Amino acid sequence: MKRDSSILKTILFGTTTTFLAISFMIFPKEAYDASVRGLTMWWDVVFPSLLPFFILSEFLIRFGVVSFIGALFEPIMRPLFRVPGSGSFVWAMGLASGFPAGAKLTARLRQEGKISSIEGERLVSFTNASNPLFIFGAISVGFFHDPALGIVLAAAHYVGNIIVGLAMRFYGNETPTYSNKGQEFSFKYAIKSMHEERLSDDRPLGKLMGDAVHSAIQTLLMIGGFIILFSVLNEILDIIHITAIVSFVISIVLSMIQMPNELSPAIIQGIFEITIGSDLVSQTQETSLIEKAIVTSFILAFNGLSVQAQVASILSETDIRFRPFFFARCFHGFVAAILTYFIFDWLYIDSTDSSTTEAVVPAFQNVNVTVFHNMYEFLLNWGSFITIIGLSVWILLLPMKSKTLQN
């Protein structure tokens, strides 16, 4: 029975790949345009925004800062989420830098034996999130031209992540391989852990810097490949009308929950890729803002198959399974959508409403949104230069890396 199932998978994968390859040859212009769009997004925004966080995380791990944070936050993270205190570092970096940083750091902790496989599956389920720069800069301001909407989307997204983390604490019963359980809060113990971790890595600073840059750029190249692939795949499926067929099914579900059918094409696009889906939601006519916000929250929380494929590739280097992460994304999508429905009227302040006091709206928007919007604009203007510099440094380091491996 197992052999028959394996043969069916082989036939399915071979047929699907062949079909897509033929589609690419039939529609070369469309495939090329889609690949350029994906490459542009990676080149201008994704690479320059993630590179500093990936490099910095390598230093924080090697200098023992993660062990320090883990010792301090063990009494909090263990009871709440049933993960080691070092999970707080992954959570913070995941929120600050966005996906798939949470998955990369979770895999790193597992490779170093700081968490068990079950703890890794719990941790990655709620640390892989959209960063504020993307929610406020790209989505709320760039697509919706409404800074106040970013507050609603961010609140639903991050509170939903916490709910997912609390729910996943009941998943699995494996005994942790690394634990400071029972250790009370101790600053002295945290310093000792950090010192021991730093001493365990005797690499010179120059080599550590080179390894950090090399690891970060390798991961970013993989991410870029997935972004381009799913951008082209999304376009091809739309051309051959498979998207329209699935959209019809989605429209039936939307009708059952009293949501506009016009949102179904955007949902399909968002299931594949977050940016395209969110942009289509903002352009959808004959729908209210709250309905658009609900669908956008779902798309952001689901992460899109493009991001999920990136996470699957990163986790494949460990024994952390992808399936729990996928179900957590589905759960997060529905939780974020429901939260958006209930908090929209409470948090959203319409700047076009004459009844809104002038004293409230500017302060509320400027403090929370303007910084992220300016950062996003900076990436659009200068991100390509950062990418060129990063790739140039990586190319220069390649001969040194090859020589080290040979020795």
Automatic annotation (TrEMBL):
Q: Which InterPro entries match?
A: Gate_dom (IPR011642), Spore_IM_YlbJ (IPR014226)
Kindly indicate where the leader peptide sits in this chain: none
Q: Which residues cross the membrane?
A: 7-27, 47-73, 123-144, 150-171, 212-233, 239-257, 326-344, 379-398
Q: Pfam families, from UniProt?
A: Gate (PF07670)
Q: Which residues form the Nucleoside transporter/FeoB GTPase Gate domain?
A: 45-136, 220-315
Q: Which domain of life is it from?
A: Bacteria
Q: Which UniProt keywords apply?
A: Membrane, Transmembrane, Transmembrane helix
Would you tell me the protein name for this molecule? Sporulation integral membrane protein YlbJ
